[in-house]
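tool_call: predict_structure(chain=1)
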Amino acid sequence: MSTTVESFQNHTTLTLPRNRASIEEEASWRWNTKAKSSNDQPSIEIGRWNKWHAGTHELIAPTFENHYTIEVLLGETYVDCFNDEKHVTGKLAGFGSTQVAAPGQQIRCRFDRSTEAIHLFIPRPTILTACEELQHRNCAEEIAIFDPCFATDPTMGRLIEAIAGAYSLHDAFISCYVESLMVAILARLIGARSDLIADRSSSSGLVKWRLRRAIDFIEANLQEHVTLSDIAKHAGLSRMHFAAQFRRATGFTPHQFLTLRRVERAKSLLSEGRLEIVEISANVGFHSQAYFTSVFRKITGTTPSCWRRSTSYNNKNGWT
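tool_result:
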């Protein structure tokens, strides 16, 4: 269960864990069971990583689709950090060194020694609202929080130590204390300067995690009647906003992309040779064989039956 408190000029809602008797001790680096199984009202979660490793070791974090992951080191270590397999930093990191992973980002780090770290798992809506309140203006839905890339920040280290210590206290006003610390941490992360927040959605289309969710949904439902509203809802955006961002990211409208994926799946089924063309058309979401043939010819320049014969001939003769 969670308790909800008001902050940021009495507008922002922070949902914090009600039971603060202890911080979740992570079985795996950056893994938090509550954040991973978040419900419709996810809360800010906190975890501690303090497992010992001999010498240099590499850790790979799980991805969280609805939370930002904030890591703050409480000791010194040399770290090489990779974000979505891109090397972003290699440095000696000290107390308070902070790294921010956005939802959907894959983080891999190589440490030269063991060190304790505190991880915050902050829901996307909380970050967005905090940004708007701190900057006193509306922010784009797709925001990018500046990643310090393990830059040493003793102030952040002290804030994290304070909030970690608060989880062992029992006091009638502890919720206010924890809330105040969390507000300070969010302000430190986000900052009031606009250069710390970049609106990438208008120039580069959907962010990776939304695009991946949309494409995965399309691939899993090629046989079904899929509408723009269905895909947009799965990606968490309005229909018009999603359609514009999807086209910017892929070069295709959602309908064009869906049709192309259906034709590609049809090609695969045609090459297998097990199903009749009428069955294949139904399997890839076309309401009739005639319409399927028309769309297939428009995209490939040939009919499904001709394509199957051609593929069968090429395979028989060892051509690709």
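agent: The domain at 204-316 is CATH 1.10.10.60 (Arc Repressor Mutant, subunit A). Proceeding to next step.
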